[in-house]
Specification:
The chain is an alpha+beta fold. It contains 6 helices and 11 strands. The chain has 2 domains: 172 residues, no CATH class; 43 residues, no CATH class. The strands form 4 sheets. A 5-stranded mixed β-sheet has the order 1-2-3-4-11. Strands 5-10 form a two-stranded antiparallel sheet. Strands 6-9 form a two-stranded antiparallel sheet.
Length: 227
C-alpha cells in the first residue's frame, strides 16, 4: 500500500504489488486485484492526508544504555490537512474488523506503536494521532460453478456418464444414492477477482467507533462468514 499512499493510481499500485520478475500464480494476482479495486473504490474520496513520508527508518540511543540502540522502520509519517502530525500503520489481519471487534482494542495497546511515537519525536514529529490502514484477508475462495447445457439447465450425469433426468424434467442437482453427479467447473481467477471486489463493496467494514480523528480505517473483504 506504500504506492497508494504516495499517490499512485490503481494500475500503478497493482504493478507495485506484483513487481516484474516475481512469479505469482493467477489466483494470487486475482486476489490482489480484487482487494485493491475494492480499496480504491471505498476510499477514493477520502483525502485527509496532505503529505506522507513512507517507510521512515530510525536509529536512536536507548535511554540509560551505553551499548544498545533503538532502531526500526515506521510504515509512514503523515501531515494531515488540519496540520496535525500522524503515524501511519499498515495492517493485514484475519480477524473481524467489525466496530466492536477486539482487534481495535488490541491495536490500542500495541507497545511497538508507542515506541514509534516516542522515536518520532526526536526527529521533529510530535505525533498527535495514529492512522491504521487495515485490510482483512479474504474469507472467500474460488467456488464451484455448475455447468449448464444449451437450454441453461444444470448438467447432471448418472453413473454411466449420461445426462440423467427425473420423470420428464432433467435433474439439476446431484444425488449420491442414485449416482447423479452435478457437473461443475472452478471459478476462473477473473470471476473470483470480480466477486471479491463486489463483496467488498457490498459489505464494507467501517472504522472503529470513537477512533475517527482520523485514526483508523479498514477495508474488509468477505468480512463475516455468516453474512
Amino acid at each position: 500500500m506504500q504506492a497508494r499512499w504516495k499517490g499512485a493510481d490503481y494500475d500503478a499500485t497493482l504493478a507495485a504489488a506484483v513487481p516484474e520478475g516475481v512469479e505469482l500464480d493467477e489466483l494470487a494476482v486475482a486476489t490482489l486485484s480484487g482487494l485493491l479495486a475494492g480499496y480504491f473504490h471505498r476510499y477514493q474520496n477520502e483525502d485527509f492526508i496532505r503529505q506522507v513520508h513512507s517507510e521512515v527508518e530510525f536509529r536512536q540511543p536507548l535511554p540509560k544504555s551505553r551499548t544498545f540502540t533503538l532502531a526500526g522502520k515506521m510504515d509512514g509519517l503523515c501531515v494531515l490537512h488540519d496540520g496535525r502530525l500522524a503515524l501511519k500503520e499498515d495492517k493485514t489481519t484475519s480477524d473481524s474488523l467489525a466496530p466492536d471487534s477486539d482487534y481495535w482494542l488490541r491495536l490500542r495497546f500495541d507497545s511497538q506503536l508507542f515506541q514509534y511515537v516516542l522515536a518520532a519525536r526526536p526527529m521533529g514529529w510530535d505525533v498527535a494521532t495514529i492512522i491504521y490502514d487495515v485490510t482483512r484477508k479474504p474469507a472467500i475462495e474460488p467456488r464451484q460453478i455448475p455447468l449448464t447445457d444449451d437450454q441453461g439447465l444444470k448438467v447432471v450425469l448418472d453413473a454411466s456418464a449420461s445426462a440423467c433426468s427425473r420423470k420428464t424434467a432433467p435433474a439439476e442437482s446431484g444425488d449420491k444414492e442414485k449416482g447423479y453427479t452435478l457437473q461443475v467447473r472452478i471459478e476462473s481467477p477473473e470471476e473470483f477477482s470480480q466477486r471479491l471486489y463486489n463483496d467488498t463493496l457490498a459489505r464494507p467494514t467501517s472504522t472503529s467507533p470513537g477512533a475517527r480523528s482520523p485514526s483508523s480505517r479498514a477495508t474488509s473483504t468477505s468480512s463475516e462468514n455468516n453474512a
